[in-house]
Sequence to fold (1171 residues):
Amino acid sequence: MSALHPDELTARRLAGDEPPADRARKFDPVTKDGTIIDDPSVRAPLVLGDRSIGDVTRIICGYVEQKPGSWWLPAFGVVSHVAALAGIMILYLAITGVGVWGLNNQVDWAWDITNFVFWIGIGHAGTLISAILCLLKQKWRTSINRAAEAMTIFAVICAATYPGIHVGRMWMAWMMFPIPNANAIWPNFRSPLLWDLFAVSTYGTVSLLFWYMGMIPDFATLRDRAVLRLMKNPDGGPRVLPFLAVRVDTLRAYIYGALSVGWRFSSRHWQHYEKAYLILAGISTPLVLSVHSIVSFDFATSVLPGWHATIFPPYFVAGAIFGGFAMVLLLMIPARELYPNMKDLITVRHLENMAKIILVTGSMVGFAYAMEFFIAWYSGSKYEADVFVYNRLMPPFFAGEDGKYAPYWWAYWSMIFCNVISPQVFWFKAFRTSAFWIFVVSFLVTIGMWFERFVIIVTSLHQAFVPGEWGMFFPTPVDILTFTGTVGIFVTLFMLFLRFLPAFAMSEIKNCLPSASPHHHGDGNGHDHGHDHGHKPAPAGGGHH
Amino acid sequence: MARARTKIYKTSAGEVVYGMMAEFATPADTFHAAEKMRDAGYTRWDVYAPFAIHGIDEAMGLKTSRVPLLCGILGLSGAGLGYLFQWWVSHQAYPMVVQGKPYGAWQPFMPIIFEFGVIFTSFTALLSMMAFNRLPMWHHPLLKKERFLRTSDDRFVICVESADSKFDPDGTRKLLEKCGGYNVDLVED
Amino acid sequence: MSQISVGHSGHGHDAGHGGEAHIAARGRIDPALLTMPHGAGRALSAIFLLVGLVAVVATFFLGYGGRAAQAMAAYHMGFLFTLGLALGCLGITMMLQQFNSGWSGPVCRQAENISSNIWVVGLLFLPIVVLEVFLSHGHPRLFHWMSPDLLDQNSAHYDTLLNAKKGFLNTNFWLVRYVFYFVMWMWFATKLAGWSRAQDRTGDKWLTAKARKISSVGLLLFALSCAFASFDYVMSLDHHWYSTMFGVWFFSAAAKAAFALIIVILASLKLRGKLGAAYTSEHLHDTGKLLFAFTVFWAYISFSQYFLMWYSNIPEETAYFNLRVREAWQPFPMIMVVANFVVPFLLLLVRNFKRNPTILRLIALWVLVAFALDLYFLVRPILRGVEPGEGVWLDALGILGPVCIFLAVVVRTVCKHPLTLLKDPRLHEVLAHKNYV
Fold:
């Protein structure tokens, strides 16, 4: 026996999470963690730390199987209480009526729809990462797609809350669905709001299917690990509750087992699975475009200056992806710091790529602002021009002799600063490879994208054609607390996801490892910057005793 | 595809044999072994790997999946159904004047036609994948094997079913070993 | 037979014992497959040039026998066709650089070949400039806003709306923009194509990094210039009408046509036995998928633009479609939808069609014809009083002229340079490219 048996190799790795010391990476100011490589002939490694296929399983399953850090419970306590705030506010709304909100006769669509569009937009990055980047064969997506998809679903949940509660008599919300009823009344299929209902529910459903289907093999991995532990020691492991004689692993084996629908990693299965996955990716791509386009139709099909612009559909989609990526980064940068080994999966290269997407989509949004502005002037229509100048842009200190200025100028300029100006720092490599600056810009972008919806919705409405219908909108505490509560719901769900579900697409990440290639013969031929592949093959028949 | 068995094999302990499995060290070994198994003419066998090895379907000689075809047909039908439904509601069952637009105008129906198509395609993708794979199937002889369960981590396994007409305990074992398999073992049904 | 080795000693996953078979199969390629023999394409190019010149002369000559406006419009359609091809390819080149894509060597090369000839498009616009600006005697046939009459407060034709936008729509600024656009596009196209051809000789991999850098800034300028060019050359044909989406729409149509032309070139080379492992059915499949994506993108943008105008029903905007559904134009919108979307969409859904060079080339040719129809629908209805189909020969000649002249130079460029990026640092990825799912 000349070579190591695979079992021994695994046993060695199990001894410690970190790779052997002689292979420890050095942190370099130019290449950062080794992934920021200018050389176009080198593809940066997707997983760092000389990880083998087994390491990937162990790291990712570890997030679910091991106890999280001491920060988890206090943090969860805070966010779940914030989430409860939304429940209380909605209850208060249901008891009292929409009068508790700040919307009024002039601005009759305000806070609720702003937040609806904000949340639904957040979700789009998830689908972009999982579907569009999948079609474009961007392998780096594999380590962020699962979390981004989860984020999509949670964002859709937050978004869908608003249409449900804003109707006033929310127990009549079922009337939105085309359900046969005693009055033989049907919904109006020519209304953009009904398209919204269909678009959002389709989006939620398809995202859920996509997410679930991606998780089937990973559920099976979690199931098998639990079963293996139980096979080794049926009475070992922690109990569910101190007085309940049920092992956590038993519970895992049943729950993950049920969810995995008996997946057994058969290649005959993989074949259909990959096709189906590709089709879901293919169909989700136009879906994600359609959802925010349909949301934009809510506004663009009207005749209101500031709302009616033909560029709205692609502009909304670009904005949604922009805001969504910012949210992915806002969630993943802290997670990367808090969870062990996550920096090996989400490398600086991943962050840089996402920063670049933020720059691109931010520029697209800037392009759309410019087009809207230019055409408002070019159209020669006074109302079109006025909505931009006197509803949005003109600050009081630049007002002309007539003293006319835009009351919401601060909202408009916050939006321009956050969405168009702040991402421009990503032209510089130092910024787009620094987790800190990416976090700062993502934070600004999230604020900016919220303001964008506020600007579009509120500023267009508050001064329409006739001065008699002019007015202002100010949010009430209920408005503000409801929105804060939805942020709580979102973060709560995301924390639960990281705790109980496979947060990374394990099987896909494994497939991106160099050792996963069927043409890889693992003799360490100096792969990119010394990250040679850890999986030493046993010679044929090596373990045959 | 009923299990037409030519012969029933039993282990020394008297258990009915489901098949014979062997482990492989790397995806490359598995890939080449699959090619050899395919060329040896086996039909009821499978490669088990923690991920879809690139090109393994060709190495195994699998036929193209029918999932896309089904999705195409059902997706387009779903879109058609979406149109018919909206037309029936807006033009036949409950016509309402909205903005002076014609009752049956196709333009405003487009968004929901599209969503219908999407939802049909997506469900077809997931459900047809499950149907072709005969899932859910929570019990399977292989899932009882401790060694097998490690495929979900980092192992590669080829298993030949005893129902394969070419299955023969000695010959199959030899072939698996020749292909680079180790820990060759019988799997009880 | 001499062979070019493109395997990477350092980091090809295939290198190593046991992988020799793969290197032989995918890492090496006969250089004769990647270059055209000396003098190839000359005849084709000469035919294109001849047809093009004859068509241009005929268009104007015949047109000035009483159909001057139609001749101008027809030639303008031809110009827009070539502009779409060249601009679309410039955009595609820069996008491929940005995506850092490994599989797309031949696509990138052909996109560069087409876009580096954008100077021809600039020259092809000169007759319109001369005829509209300098020889129109105050009565431009195509760009009515150039007529000084419309800005004359005492004239019966005084146009308040035009007066409001004269800061943008005035002849001088329009000429400055013309020069600016083409100089900028030429600069980017020449730089990108030049670097990639220099790399074929020197093998300097840093040229790829350089190209990636400038195309990031380039894309930003490209997006703006492409949008404003579409306003200048198309939207301003009806200077009252406006749409914020129009720049995006023009890009979607242009990129689709440009990609179709790339496919036509590559598939033709493939059918002549060229390219070998650099462009297999796997690459065909992917280019087919991208054509599909561009088709869907065009449909999405077109539908959104149309639909929002249809639904809002604001007279300033619906004028555009009113013009295009009146009387004999009525069937055209549906013809457009079928030709530009339904047919390519359904055909490109079929996997085997995308993997077959003959069929994919046919589909791509169809897409190009549909683009011509698209332009016809865009430009021709402006000529009130000239029914569709009236003087089709003139429209056809007008389109044929610039297009054939442009294709003549494109054919020359294609034959002059290697057919794919020869020393692209990612060439091993091109050769190993495979769709696994």
